[in-house]
Amino acid sequence: MRKRLLATAFAALMTVAAWAQIGSPYIHDPSTVVECDGKYYTFGTGSGGLISEDGWNWHGGAVRPGGGVAPDALKIGDRYLVVYSTGDVQGVRYGSHVYAMWNKTLDPESPDFKFTDPIDIAGSNGYEDCDGIDPGLMMGPDGRLWLVYGTYFGYLRVVELDPATARAIGEPVNVALSCEAGEMIYNDGWYYLLATHGTCCSGVNSTYEIIVGRSKSPTGPYCDNLGRDMIHGGGRLLLASEPRRIGAGHFGRFVVGKGIEKFSFHFEGDLDRSGRSVLAMRALLWKDGWPVAGKPFESGEYSIVSERRGFTLELAVNNVPMNTGARGMSRNADGPVVALDDQKLEDVIGTWPQGDINLRIGPELFRPHQAWVITELNDVPGFIGGAYCKITIAGTGRALAATASREVTTVPEFTGAPEQLWRIDQLTDGTFRIMPKAVPGTDEELALVAVADSTPSLGVFDPESDNSKWNLYKH
Amino acid sequence: MKILNRILLAALLVTAFAVTGSAQKKGKIDVGEALKGYFTPVTTPSASPDAKGFIRRWMILEPISKPNSTNRVFTDTYTRENLSVEYFPGQFTVIPKDGDKVKVTMEYQPPVNLTSNRPAQPQGEQPKFVKATLTWHALDSDHFFVKLFRFATGLDKDRYGVIFWTVTVINCEEDIPNVRLAVGSNKAARWWVNGEELLLLAGDRHMGVDSAVSDRITLKKGKNVLRGVTMNGPGMSEFCARFIDDHGNPVRNYTITCN
Amino acid sequence: MFNQFLYFLTVCLLSLQTFPAEEGGRAQFSDYYTPATAAPVSPDAEGFIRRWTILEPIAKSFSSNAMLTDNFLTEAMAETYFKDQFTVVPVDGSKVKYGKTNLVWHALDSKLFFVNLLRFAEGLDKEYFQQMYWAVTIIDCDRDIENVRLAGGANSGAVWYLNGEEVLRLTNDRDLIVDDCASQRVTLKKGRNILRGAVFNGQGMATFCLRFLDENGKPVTGYTVSSLLKKR
What we know:
A: Tachylectin-2, Chain A, Trefoil (Acidic Fibroblast Growth Factor, subunit A), 2 domains, 43% strand, elongated, C: alpha+beta
């Protein structure tokens, strides 16, 4: 029990509040994060935006002319479409325009960096129940381009755009009431409308929340999980707030690859950063046909459990029995009942080899050789939406490492070598991909896999296979 | 003195005429035309709830000014306190008739600035109170919801930082027990049936069908008075209301009347 | 003592439940094995190697499969049980001397995807609890087959060697599970490869299954399996 308490206390010490993103990710109403030539970009209200070389550490420097509010961005072919809006209809409130402009690159240092002149693609006249701002773009599975726009003032509207010019084709259709920051996505036969409810722009006093409805058609009706039309105020919550980070809004989907999706958004107020509005990215999960927000990853003590059979990653060391007296069939009725200690690291570590120790996967026994501390490292570059981690046996420096023979082992001490840095991505089904930053001697991207029920290795990640998937449970 | 008195009398008459003229001019607003697309003046003796049970017939009082530059202030306490203030006599009991007028005491706010990001309001000053005469309008909503914002803009009244008083009468042929009042409200509101408060809706909220429901009540045989008061800062304002049964299905076996 | 009897009874009942061949009487050796033939065979459709030359069991003193730790297996395999134990490619019917006992190699084809060692011992009227079973097979390839893994399950502990090198170890109290453990990537070289191992079992059922898997976890079948038979 004491060991468990100590372990818990240790885990608590090790657990740091998960960041949104690091660096200077200060932005309001971010556009969907877009990759361009290996860098990541997002634009915000006002002018400019953020750039990140690794998708984790962000800084200013993105360039977007036109000002206005709440832009969105989408790569179409070899060009980037950026849309934004301004309330520039004179003499009336809620009279707004959505403008579109193209660029061959988002890198302001590139010689090809030149935005086309903005063209007016949608808006509101100030007298209708729509405020034509907060544009969101979606390329449908059929190559049709759609724009959603609007705010709490009346309706969100959807209109089709010509993907060659971004000019509107067809008439706008009302799809949701009293929402803003709309964004449409397509997944597995459904169109989804993500939008926000709640108070915006008030720092940690904001109540921004991202809601979602879905439809078989891009023009709706978008209904929530109870069948309530978003035009009647329906909507299923995706994310409102997290501890220390308040008011999620301006959803944007970022597909990393098959089975791995993230979404970018802002928290209106980050309590760890003076209540500022910050860019955030989280895993986007899919459950029963609905998008679900992944939890922020937290450093701490975990069991690393293979989805293949449910066994847990462990050191391949001798099983050290716990000396609790004779127990078994018909031997349980003697003496008083007392709580026994967990097996302690010091009970077993002397039996472990000194050098590299290989790994197995075995049934969870909550023993020291199965207890992993996963620690986010913010002093090394990260990856899109996350920080690399070191993975060590609890209470030791023994670290998980990829080997030149494309296997996994543990080395006695963490050195920070790239084969000891692990990228952990939550998959759309809620499990995790665990991937070394580098595998010595190869450029292949390999992930931690179970090649047998009891044997871990490195292999090509297969989103369809449980061999490639892991669960992380608090140990 | 006589001459002075006559001058004063003449001045008063001119002023009175001007005021009356102004009032008559305003009175000439074609409400049906002004609210077109959102409301139709009541022309029938009674109405039924719509197919989904929404109550579309309402007496709505022209908005009472209550300046607020943000909707964040609508806490439970603020909402309760500011919707408890007496703005006009009998405000929690009156069953008004179309065209009835009430004299209200309300906070002054300058004319709306349609180009600003926030509704115009006095900055940093103690509130000034003014008296105004406001009119009740008997209206059928063209939609399942009641677009209060368009009621205000259509009648060229204050649209932000206002309180909307709404009343309707539910007529039942027999007691209807175990029903809930279900309201979607943009923004803060209080709702009563037969004088009993059923809902306090605080916060910067948007209208969602059935987003808040009351405890179970009984709509009694005969007349039931349904009263809702909705308060808005900036932005859109609207509500929708219906009664639902224990299964969440709309209750429709009653009629709705306005005097 | 009574508890041990209970345990034995449980094991027997479990065995009865698992192996219908035993219904109505003692299991027949022929329900599990046929003698290996001279012609090489392929692994089965799922890649399992069914042809093995198995040595009659050697008694080992361990009461529980939980004792089959890495250390136990390392020490057990460091012992010499018979001459050339890590190099001999046995001929069916040949004998080895273990202490004062002669043990016979039997070249067999398993009728099942796995090899039932308990039925092997029982069928030969040998002890089958607390035993060590040696098994050898010959794998012939007409080309190098790279990046394959030897994958298997065993009841209970086992150590397997490919061409003299230990490639796979199954520790602790295990049950027979297809692909329970896998080796690192190995190469089956063009020509002859010798796959050799020992399986340990304390109480209860004693079995193993083995196959080679490719990088995608699919069975490797492009080779033949043989045993050496006496010239007739």
